[in-house]
Write a structure and sequence with these properties.
The chain is mainly β and about 110 residues long. It is built from no helices and eleven strands.
């Protein structure tokens, strides 16, 4: 059983940056791919970015490509999401997922 804990959310002005972290425990972190998802009020949860076990293959939703960067540090059992040039439409609860587990989410609010 994997346990995931997100951190780093907050309130930021449009054009600003935030860095989310996802700390994992309970299973060998380097054995599973990881991803970030988000859910805005009244909308379904959507894929944001994904990364393979080694961290050398990454995938992004078109809406965040070029602005967000996903990475992982297997030695620290942690995945990251660097979010730059944030827009109000990026406002959502952000969740990390991997190893058949989900975190509890962290709120990101972008003001215009």
């Amino acid at each position: 059983q994997v346990q995931l804990l997100e951190s780093g959310g907050g309130l930021v002005q449009a054009g600003g940056s935030l860095r989310l972290s996802c700390a994992a425990s309970g299973r060998t972190f380097s054995s599973y791919a990881m991803g970030w998802f988000r859910q805005a009020p009244g909308k379904e949860r959507e894929f944001v970015a994904g990364i393979n076990t080694f961290g050398d293959a990454t995938y992004y939703a078109d809406s965040v490509k070029g602005r967000f960067t996903i990475s992982r540090d297997n030695a620290k059992n942690t995945m990251y999401l660097q979010m730059n040039s944030l827009k109000p439409e990026d406002t959502a609860v952000y969740y990390c997922s991997g190893g058949n587990g989900w975190g509890q989410g962290t709120q990101v609010t972008v003001s215009s």
